Amino acid sequence: MKNLILLTAFVFGFTAYSTAQTDNNKITLSSEAQAKMVIEKKSHDFGPIEEGVQATVTFAFKNTGNAPLVLNSVKASCGCTTPKWTKEPIAPGAEGVITAIYNSKGRPGNFTKTITVKHNGEGGTEFLTIRGVVNKAPAVVKPTVVSPEQ
Asked: Which domain holds residue 107?
């Protein structure tokens, strides 16, 4: 029993020493080169739009870090929104854009969509939001041709 207590004390002591050594040798991220994405605005409200319109907005961003910023993926929350973005690495101090195109055809009513941006910079993920109200298009009235009776 005495040996078991000594062994347990030794294991706990060794673990505490190892943890203390690991914490002292950590490198902080602030001393490493890292990109940082700063977006001017993260949401856009289109307000009322007519059904069938391709509503488009561009979100501008800047790399304020000290390493190139790479957008790994840009995905919309549904197929009605198509994102386009700067594909090449954005140098420190340079700017890029993400354009969101919302197809309102057949989608009357309120909408809120999210674009998820994954990148190699600080934080790693950003969320952009678009919203608005699609006014239903007026019904198309087909003309009726009436021929006179003979």
From this structure: 31-135
